[in-house]
Specification:
This protein is mainly alpha-helical. About 70% of the residues lie in helices and about 0% in strands. The longest helix is centred in the middle third of the chain and has 36 residues, at about 80-115. The mean pLDDT is about 90.
Length: about 170
Amino acid sequence: MRRLLNAIYASSAALAALSMCGLLFMVLLSILSRQLHFHVPGTDAYAGYLMAGAGFLALAHTLKRGEHIRVTLVLGLFKGGARRGLEIFSLGLASLLAGLFAFYSCRLVWQSIEFHDISTGNDATPLWIPQLVMALGTLIFALAFVDELVLEIRGQRVDTASGEMLRNE
């Protein structure tokens, strides 16, 4: 099961990286089209969709690597069981919020399909397509939080604190 979850998180990160490459391509295409006096419709909209996709698809991988911003000021005041209890409470609350975020993201996709929503730009993209990427990212993010919660309850969670503070000058 651990290998499957790690593969899901890594795949999501790879899709986020591909989205970033697509975003770069759209921006470069937009710049080149202006310089060479031709127009490619929808490049701005697709760049925005790809940027959102990159952000949402990277959430779970970033969480699992310990790179999300955490306010540990209060957490550092506690030791032992109290700290563990606070971690479980925090992860439970985060799992609930991430689950709600995923639920409403999926609901938005369903409503966009049901109402045949399209973008207001000249590309007229069905909005469920970019929204589906957001929903996928939030589902994997919620899964990652539940995974962290289960690991904490089992006592198997490894604190993957970021080394970012060590890189500050």
